[in-house]
Amino acid sequence: MTVRRLTAALACLAAACTTAFAAVPARATEAAPRPATAVRTHDGALRGSAEDGYRTFEGIRYAAAPVGALRWALPRPASPWTGVRDATRPGSACPQQPGEVPGGSTDEDCLHLNVTAPADARPRQPKPVIVWLHGGGFTTGAGSSYDAHRMAVRGDVVVVTVNYRLGALGFLGHGGLPGSGTFGLADQQAALRWVRANIGAFGGDARNVTLAGESAGGFSVCAQLASPSAAGLFDRAIIQSGPCTGRPGRPFAPSAASLPTVRAAGARFAAKVGCKTARDVLACLRHVSVSRLLAAQDTDQQPAYGTPLLPRDPGTALAQGRFHRVPVLIGNNHDEGNGWAAGIIQAGNPVTPKTWPDTVAAFFPDPAQAAAIVRAYPVTGSDGGPVFGAVIGDSNFACPTLRTGTLLAAQVPVWRYEFADEHAPPLTSGTPPFPLGAPHASELPYLFDLGGRPRTMTPAQHRLADLMIDYWSGFARTGDPNNVPSPDSYPPSWQPGAVQSLAPDHTGPAHTAAQHHCVFWNGRS
């Protein structure tokens, strides 16, 4: 593969990683005002919306706006208010290029969260709480993209979706700057502290909080498991397609980087926006426009470890047993890599028996490793796309997820799954060069209405969506996904340690280690 084509492939990689919801429309404008409902938090009163079977409170400020001198500062508490504040519309997404959020965003006043609660949720009979961290490569996404009413109503849980700072604004590394490389993770902790203090007003149980996320959100859960300052902020964890053992050499999955690496990236970033030679680099950066910052930042960002918030890389912390002792539900999708493989092929990089060795070498530069991959994953004809997708998915997601589960299971209860609907509804428009199966993020429409719009599903897929919500909420309720309504009508019990395959009308144990060549991948650096 030529340097030009490799560059195109990596650009496409980033696009696939960060624009999974580009085709998801924004929530439709309401035709008529919705009935109001009110709660009082510690900061003040909120007026939300009453829906059929649930209530929503949107755009709730959980921390002070990180603007001016608070740009690249650790989150500060929000100021209390008098009167009743409107909470019927989501707040601004954190600054990002156009993609998951139509039109992008340049509004730094973005530290908001959204609460969806069953209509009967009341403080005297509190319900379990799920706090959701969105994905998007730490550069895109918003909590308001995830309509959680199905999970709240069917699961009988209170769901909180969170915005956190992204890109260079969330993860800038700079010497002598408190919070350097971890501002986005600190925002997540501020949201969790807000939940502990306030969720009771919405009928949520502040003593039963599950932290959940997908992709970069899943890796964020890993980081919070390993963060000393997150101690006591959550009681269970759900990690979707964000294995804690990700690393820069496997670039499709999120990972952390050392603080010196993040600081070096920060210095290059400062130079791009004209602040490298300033007497006060940070003061210069704080005066640069958001749009210029967004144009200069790297496509994907990495939180920094070797910091007060994250002393160790999450994978290292797990291997050393240095993580919070809470039950974990963790999994991946059967065909995680197919979306990236399809995008790279469509960018003008065909995968054939002739081009396959060069394609592998472009992503795995060690010659011995590349040769071993070509032998383990042969391309014999027109199967190049799925084979390439399998290499991406197995090396970046499936096998690191199994490894993460093994490390966690040495200390805490672990429930494993693999989402395996081979006809999952597509997240983007257009026709891919080969069937994608169950690619990265394809499980999300089974749990949420993305962009406020439900996906078209078959009856069997609807049953799977109901089952997954029952599993997720059962785990949030007791730490055991088998805690479901009418258990006699469900598939065989989900066994601890076993991987539960989740497919329409076909749920049960799966032998994923063999399917994904995990002896091959987990035995390699």
Please explain how this structure is put together.
There is one protein chain. The protein has 525 residues and is α/β, with parallel strands linked by helices. 33% of the residues lie in helices and 17% in strands. Strands 1, 2, 3, 4, 5, 6, 8, 9, 10, 13, 14, 16 and 17 form a 13-stranded mixed β-sheet that branches. Strands 7-15 form a two-stranded antiparallel sheet. Strands 11-12 form a two-stranded parallel ribbon. A hairpin with a 3-residue loop joins β2 (45-50) and β3.
Keywords:
33% helix, 17 strands, single chain, 525 residues, 17% strand, two-stranded antiparallel ribbon, 17 helices, alpha/beta, globular
Structure summarized in a few sentences:
This protein is of the alpha/beta class and 525 residues long. It is 33% helix and 17% strand. It is built from 17 helices and 17 strands.
**Class based on secondary structure composition and strand pairing:** alpha/beta
C-alpha Rg (nearest Å):
22 Å
Q: Largest sheet, described in full? A: 13 strands, mixed
Are there runs of 5+ residues with pLDDT below 50, and where?
1-31
Q: Assign an overall shape.
A: globular
Number of helices: 17
Give the helix proportion (percent range).
Answer: 25-40%
Q: Give the total of beta strands.
A: 17
Average pLDDT score = 91
The percentage of residues in β strands lies in 15-25%
The rounded distance between the terminal residues' Cα atoms is: 23 Å
